[in-house]
Amino acid sequence: xxxxxxxxxxxxxxLAAAGVTHFAAPRTYDxxxxxxxxxxxxxxxxxxxxxxxxxxAGVALPRTRRRAALVAAAFFVGxxxxxxxMALDWRHRPAPLKAAALGRLPLQxxxxxxxxSVGASAEGRS
Length: 126
Prior knowledge:
6 helices; Methylamine_util_MauE
């Protein structure tokens, strides 16, 4: 990803929007939670939504941007199993839904690289 002035704010906006959707449409996310995790799927849905909103705030603020962006990169890696589960669960759905689920898998790579780039270009204050 290019290192532009707006890039951190775009990443923050993406994280914030994704985090809010965990509360607006939690059932979608509940279904993605791998069954091997302890506790309820809804608790994981809400926790990941809170994490994304917190990361959005951290990336938006210059003082915490570096650390928050690097944690966001790790977060994108950490949620990859949920995207794999979604792709497996949706393999028999209509083609557009199946394509959307499969499309989430390679999308994680540029998200990780983008977050790392934002972290690397941030001033080392965090």
